[in-house]
TrEMBL record:
Keywords: Lipid biosynthesis, Lipid metabolism, Steroid biosynthesis, Steroid metabolism, Sterol biosynthesis, Sterol metabolism, Transferase
Organismal lineage: Eukaryota, Viridiplantae, Streptophyta, Embryophyta, Tracheophyta
An example Gene Ontology molecular-function term: hydroxymethylglutaryl-CoA synthase activity
Residues in Hydroxymethylglutaryl-coenzyme A synthase N-terminal domain copies: 2-173
Catalytic reaction(s) noted: acetoacetyl-CoA + acetyl-CoA + H2O = (3S)-3-hydroxy-3-methylglutaryl-CoA + CoA + H(+)
Enzyme type, top EC level: transferase
Pathway note: Metabolic intermediate biosynthesis; (R)-mevalonate biosynthesis; (R)-mevalonate from acetyl-CoA: step 2/3
InterPro entries: HMG_CoA_synt_AS, HMG_CoA_synt_C_dom, HMG_CoA_synth_N, HMG_CoA_synthase_euk, Thiolase-like
Binding, CoA: 208, 251, 255
Pfam families in the record: HMG_CoA_synt_C, HMG_CoA_synt_N
Stated name of the protein: Hydroxymethylglutaryl-CoA synthase
Family: Belongs to the thiolase-like superfamily. HMG-CoA synthase family.
Function: Catalyzes the condensation of acetyl-CoA with acetoacetyl-CoA to form HMG-CoA.
Length: 448
């Protein structure tokens, strides 16, 4: 089947957020640490009436409605998430409520979990299904949903929350270049969730940054090699219009792109001009391991990369800077930012994406875009997602209120026998919310 890829997208993030500048002051961090140091503007979070299930219910029902998709026409539904609410019952089964109502229970797929990578695994499963002999002609649907929350401390400002739904099928405006794909998977303890009665991860922040960059380098090298074998010429950053990264916080995205530039330099690629070569030359003798520790290299490569970053990466950063790390949804929120900012000029362009999940699992892959046909067109996807209005209509809460909500959520995590406030006053019409968890841990949701 030809041109299999993403036909439609919808994004949902909570209407509640906190300004990074305010949080910085409240936490007693030095001024600029979260905003300039981490590169973040604002952080979205769920209050006690929202969770990964309600957000995904909202994203899926909104996608079906806004693109007028008959729920009977969905044949596979895959969820990526690392927010564990139940160790057995998948989030996918909660979403079946939408489809059962319409008489469709014939839907394959369950949840995929490995840190921020689950969404990419779910996406590949759906694309592979449509490309396979088992495809029955119906749509695939991928949902990435996460609430990223950290214990008090340096990682707390790198939280976030969102759900993204993506419809998969042939003749898509966003097509997978399935041959241009490279993975790096390894056994590392950079970020993990061994404490099963807490929502918070155990995280070695510094190690996680290095693991991310090691995976990035490895994927890029393999991707370049595969491309060269396939196309007969060298791949460099000049061969893609945009680079989209999993975005735990923006500074890491800046460092990542600089790393690709450094890779191109060491490969003697044509994307690197004479002045850049001069600036990076002092670092050509660094060993691979040393190159991750050198602050001077980090600075020099970020400086060299800056004009290209502004052109090829900056348009992808809006939602991750405004909402924070959305774990599995983070990469696709960055891609949604690109569609939002550049949908008019993306036809014919190649976009390279890098997905990273701690532990670790990572894949770099390529998409080729075309305008598509209504309702599955780039411009319609941008208008359905309505990113600007969603961002602008959010409510900023105080750090005190945020801390209070985090405390309540710690208490509620894994708990039973409670009703929520059912206060949906801040939620947009059509948003699902949690009303009750009964004495048998069964969860109940309502739609505003
Ligand atoms: N003004 C400007 N910049 C500042 C200031 C200031 N006042 N203070 C600090 N900075 C800079 C630092 O120099 C640093 O930038 P640099 O790396 O370019 O030098 C940046 O702000 C962060 O400061 P650190 O001291 O490195 O921050 P800290 O170690 O306290 O926490 C960390 C950062 C490790 C990322 C933490 O937030 C964390 O653990 N987050 C979760 C882990 C994570 O997201 N990992 C990414 C990959 S894995 C995943 O996706 C979950």
């Amino acid at each position: 089947h030809k041109n299999v890829g993403i036909l439609a997208m919808e994004i949902y993030f909570p209407p509640t957020c906190i300004q990074q500048e305010t949080m910085e002051a409240h936490d007693g961090a030095s001024k600029g640490k979260y905003t300039i140091g981490l590169g973040q503007d604002c952080m979205g979070f769920c209050t006690e009436v929202e969770d990964v299930i309600s957000m995904s219910l909202t994203a899926v029902s909104s996608l079906l409605e806004k693109y007028a998709i008959d729920p009977k026409k969905v044949g596979r539904l895959e969820v990526g998430s690392e927010t564990v609410i139940d160790k057995s019952k998948s989030i996918k089964t909660f979403l079946m409520q939408i489809f059962e109502k319409c008489g469709n229970t014939d839907i394959e797929g369950v949840d995929s979990t490995n840190a921020c990578y689950g969404g990419t695994a779910a996406l590949f499963n759906c694309v592979n299904w449509v490309e396979s002999a088992s495809w029955d002609g119906r749509y695939g649907l991928v949902v990435c949903t996460d609430s990223a929350v950290y214990a008090e401390g340096p990682a707390r400002p790198t939280g976030g929350a969102a759900a993204i739904a993506m419809l998969i099928g042939p003749d898509a405006p966003i097509v997978f270049e399935s041959k241009i794909r490279a993975s790096h998977m390894a056994h590392v303890y950079d970020f993990y969730k061994p404490i099963l009665d807490s929502e918070y991860p155990v995280v070695d922040g510094k190690l996680s940054q290095t693991c991310y960059l090691v995976a990035l380098d490895s994927c890029y090298k393999i991707l370049c090699n595969k491309y060269e074998k396939l196309e007969g010429n060298q791949f460099s950053i000049a061969d893609a219009a945009y680079f989209v990264f999993h975005s735990p916080y923006n500074k890491l995205v800046q460092k990542s792109f600089a790393r690709l530039v450094f890779n191109d330099f060491t490969r003697n690629a044509s994307s690197i001009d004479e002045s850049a070569k001069e600036k990076l030359a002092p670092f050509s003798s660094l060993s691979h391991d040393e190159s991750y520790q050198s602050r001077d290299l980090e600075k020099a490569s970020q400086q060299v990369a800056k004009p290209l970053y502004d052109e090829k990466v900056q348009p992808t950063t809006l939602i991750p800077k405004q909402v924070g790390n959305m774990y599995t949804a983070s990469l696709y929120a960055a891609f949604a930012s690109l569609l939002h900012n550049k949908h008019n000029t993306l036809a014919g362009q190649r976009v390279v994406l890098f997905s990273y999940g701690s532990g670790s699992t990572a894949t770099m892959f390529s998409l080729k875009l075309n305008e598509g046909q209504h309702p599955f067109s780039l411009s319609n996807i941008a208008s359905v997602m309505n990113v600007q209005e969603k961002l602008e209509s959010r409510n900023e809460l105080t750090p005190e209120k945020f801390v209070e909500i985090m405390k309540l959520m710690e208490h509620r995590y894994g708990a039973k026998d409670f009703v929520t406030s059912k206060d949906c006053s801040l939620l947009a019409p059509g948003t699902y919310y949690l009303t009750e968890v009964d004495s048998k841990y069964r969860r109940f949701y309502a739609k505003k």
